[in-house]
Amino acid sequence: MAVTQQLARIPAEYLAACRQAASESPDRASHWNPPSADVLDLDWAPALLERVCELADLDDVHRDALRQATQGATSIDVGFLNTQPHAIAPFGPAPTALSAVEVAHVSELLGQIDLRAILATLPTDETAAVSLTGDGAEGIAGDPRKYLLEHFDALREFYRDASQRHLLLVLWWD
Predict the structure, then answer these.
(1) For burial by CB atoms within 10 Å, which of 17, 73, 105, 163 has the most?
(2) What are the DSSP calls for 125-167, one per residue?
(3) Average pLDDT of each block of 10 consecutive residues along the chain (174 residues)?
């Protein structure tokens, strides 16, 4: 079973209800179950995206936004989601979250990143591109540029939608 990056866009009220359920339940069950339409599986793309942006010398502001988009922040306590036996991230780091304000900021910065131009800096030879991209890239079937562009576009659209709907994001590895 592969451990992959997961994101869920949810209203603050939903997170509060899950927190309350966990605090009232004898076994700490949060009843976490966001709608599948509001969950994104980024596979192993986060580290690879960060690596190609580093290789292309993307500025720190936008690289930090990409990092925050895939790693979250500690401003919202979601530790109750990582309590056994109902932990949502049993195989990776503890879940993190971004507030609606943080989501809007990250969304704006992700919208400014020209990933096609960044990917154009990779060698044209797929083997060489995979080698430069780093750990995990060798597991990509086909062109790493296509894989990264698809996942980045999905990430950017996911954040754009969350920002427009004033939702927060919860991130975890599962």
Answers:
(1) 163
(2) SHHHHHHHH-TTGGG--S-HHHHHHHHHHHHHHHHHHHHHTT-
(3) 87 97 94 97 94 96 98 94 90 93 98 97 83 72 87 98 98 94
